[in-house]
Amino acid sequence: MSNAPAGKLRILTPGLGAVSTTLIAGIILSRKGLAKPIGSLTEYGDIDGVPVTDLVTSLDDIEFGAWDVYDESAYDVAARSGVLSPLHLAAIESELRAIKPLPGVFDPVWVKALADADHIKQGDNLMEMADQLVDDIESFRANGERLVMVWCGSTEAYLEPTEVHADLASFERGLKSNDPAIAPSQVYAYAAIRAGVPYANGAPNLSVDIPALVEMAELHGVPIIGKDFKTGQTLMKTILAPGLKSRRLGIRGWFSTNILGNRDGLVLDHPDNFKTKEVSKLGVLDSLLEPEKNADLYGDITHEVRINYYPPRGDDKEGWDNIDIFGWLDYPMQIKVDFLCRDSILAAPIVLDLARLLDLANRKGRGGIQEFLNYYFKSPQPMTEGARVEHNLFTQEENLFDAIRKMATG
Fold first, then answer.
1. Residue 176 pLDDT > 70
2. Model pLDDT, residue 280
3. Under CATH, to which class is 9-229+344-409 assigned?
């Protein structure tokens, strides 16, 4: 059943921040035998007794490339982010210093907290920016590497689809006319698809999940998926809510708050960017609990989400949940969850898995939306627009393994 590919796979990340540098450092440390890539399904999973590592690119064959709006090496970013220990950083300092980002596509309208960014591409219109990204992509492919792009940049301001997103022709006209409804992440997604590079969206931005780019991905046979990595608090919801539902325990309210001090926290402190994240987080419970089928139990839930920027916490996010439940004869009970997690430590293995599995899908000729990868996202992207999305983590895992099995034997 082995389908392990020959050659190199280069993971391209728009955004050389805490998540991407933690990914890069973790892979290098693992290759040196100095750490283990725990949390990665593609490292620790198996299909019918066959390790998933037999089907995907070896850690020894993974390389990196990045864009960012600040001109800092991967070492400088990792040291500033405070995710990894000085001991780990010292062991791979030379490798991290060698990784530097290309200038990024940026407009402060979309991320006001980064208004001082100065490592930015210049051009008369967004299509010129996309052309520059395609040139960058081809330079990354110069030695014949296979490529995958995973958005690891900041959360952009909230955006709903407009006419420019309705089809590919409209979108390309919008790129040439600098349509204000086209976000930087969409320019990256467009460039990736045009260059034949699989693309995943790790933030809640309206990025690749628009009709124009879905149309383009299907036309070019390029795998795409999004959006918003499922790491801390939402991961807990997709574990706990199915269990409560299974026992037919009612839920009256679910209050969630987050304390986060890294650059992501700074960005999300602005209401426009928080709105994007809030919409991504709020959709999970309705889909999981199906209140239309269980009105007595879930028909009147108060669901609140908060994010608080608290600099002393750094990358060590705290996700605190209060769940008001009720049982036999409507008697009330409560559940308190305090998840003291490490945001980038949880996100890094997701990026690795997505890169490897998108590459597998690409090698198997699977274009368009890769619904089997919804396991990794807060706001899974359905293959049919408007279709119900599955949020149950355990059902998502079954779908993921079924798809890998088919690709392995097909």
1. yes
2. 58
3. alpha beta
Angle at 215 between CA 210 and CA 217, to 5 degrees: 95
Query: Within 13 A of 287's CA, how many CA atoms are on the CB side?
Result: 22
Band (pLDDT 50/70/90 cuts) for residue 391 is: confident
- Whether the CB-CB separation of 382 and 181 falls below 8 Å is answered with no
pLDDT band, residue 345 (cuts 50/70/90): very high
Helices (DSSP H) in 141-232: which residue ranges? 168-176, 184-194, 211-220
Confidence tier at 282 by pLDDT (50, 70, 90):
low
CA distance 115 to 39: 34
Contacts of 258 (CB under 8 A, 6+ apart): 232, 233, 305, 306, 307, 308, 317, 318, 319, 320
CA distances from 158 to 17, 152, 226 (A): 21, 17, 16
Torsion of the alpha carbons at 22, 24, 26 and 32, rounded to the nearest 10: -150
At residue 276 the predicted structure's pLDDT band, cuts being 50, 70 and 90, is: low
The structure tokens listed for 79 are: 């040291």
Shared fold status for 9-229+344-409 and 233-340: no
Amino acid identity of residue 170, one-letter, is: S
Q: Tell me the CATH class for 233-340.
A: alpha beta
Whether 87 has a pLDDT exceeding 90, the answer reads yes
Beta strand spans in 112-196 (E): 146-151
Residue count of the chain, please give it.
410
Domain boundaries, the chain: 9-229+344-409, 233-340
